[in-house]
Amino acid sequence: MSDRCATRSDWLKIAPLRPRDPSECKTEWGPFSREFTERIGAPAPVRSVLIRPATPDVEHVVEQALGEVPSDVYPRPGEDATELAQRLGQSKWLDDTRVKKDGCRKQRVRLNEKDYPQPRRKTWSILLKDCSAAGGTAVGGHSAGHHPAHPATGRWLLAFRSPPKETESCEPMPSSVFDLGVVLWRVAAAHLSEASRATAPNHCQLMLYYTLFKSKIQPHRDFYAGALGGDYLEEQCEHPDVPLPPPCRHDPMHCSMCRH
């Protein structure tokens, strides 16, 4: 595992992207026009794409980043779902996420020690600032409440803030993970919007899907007002070039600095 984490200085050194030749990646799936989706009964055009990098350095960078994943979070031969959940529940590496018991009750339980289908997560951020004691103002004028100090190191992170009852950890991003994000960001340049080409990724959440848990993500919204989703789909059917609406600014969980 890497001994060095990515910092704000590393992030700022990465120049904005210009649109690149799509030949740097192979498009395996998408996008699909409105004409095509209407023929198959889909409600709106599809702008998502699945791409395969065509640059030679990707495999090495992926290998380095996967070196950050400890072997004890992988399933083992002969293990059943209960045994895997018991073992993951002891992990100090995974985010210690709290979720609703059985998916609907008020009581919260630790996801890692249950056999629920939600993917397990590991969250990283570039390092914003070293600080031995909380207080003052962090990068961009945000208070320490927006960029909490890491409990073990006192370092400030660009942390994705979940609702309090579902608090997830966020740790300094290893350089190998940051390097992978930058490589993939560059590979995908031809498919990115102008806003996404402006800055390199500064935050990463690894999601682990387990066959034993039948892992999946249920339909959900990420800090959007529910009405925005319906309005967007209706607008897409008539005007497929309309951009995605911004997240609801009334939601205190939204972090305007983290856009990747």
Task: Give a structural overview.
The structure is a single chain. It is globular, with a radius of gyration of 20 Å. The protein contains seven helices and nine strands. The longest helix has 13 residues, at about 175-185. It has one domain (about 10-240). Strand 3 and strand 4 (about 110) form a beta hairpin. With about 260 residues, it is α+β, with helices and mostly antiparallel strands.
Q: Strand percentage, roughly?
A: 5-15%
Give the rounded overall mean pLDDT. Answer: 76
Inertia-based shape: globular
Write down the domain tally.
Answer: 1
- Helical segment count: 7
The poorly predicted ranges are 132-147, 247-260
Main sheet: strands, sense, barrel: 3 strands, mixed
| Strand order in the largest sheet | 8-5-9
How far is the N terminus from the C terminus?
A: 24 Å
What structural class should be given to the helix and strand makeup?
alpha+beta
Measured as a percent range, the helix fraction is 10-25%
Say how many strands there are: 9
CA radius of gyration: 20 Å
Quaternary form: single chain
Q: What's the SSE pattern?
A: HEHEHHEEEEEEHHEH
Write the layout of secondary structure elements.
Blueprint: H1 8-12, E1 25-29, H2 34-39, E2 50-53, H3 58-66, H4 81-88, E3 98-100, E4 108-110, E5 120-125, E6 127-130, E7 155-157, E8 171-172, H5 175-187, H6 194-198, E9 203-208, H7 226-238
Parallel strand pairs: 5-8
Antiparallel strand pairs: 1-2, 3-4, 5-9, 6-7
Helix pairs in contact: 3-5
